[in-house]
Known about the structure:
Elements (H helix, E strand, L loop, with lengths): L28 E6 L4 E5 H16 L9 H11 L1
Antiparallel strand pairs: 1-2
Amino acid sequence: MKGERNIPWKKPVDDARSVIKEGEELEVKITAIDRKKRTINLSIKAKDSDDEQATVKEYAPESGGGAKLGDLLKEHLDNN
Length: 80
């Protein structure tokens, strides 16, 4: 989304035009396509969630066991 603007997504929106201006650029995830109804469901929240999960995976240890604060501090102290 160009510029920073917080959109209050407390509940689903029936018509995006009520909260987003035409021409506004957004980063979204396509969550469903209904060819019969000719509709596309988009989600900002799902896109943000995917980005967050990708970041967590990027910084997670390769062992897959999950990093513990103590392990991270020990590694940091050992490297310095």
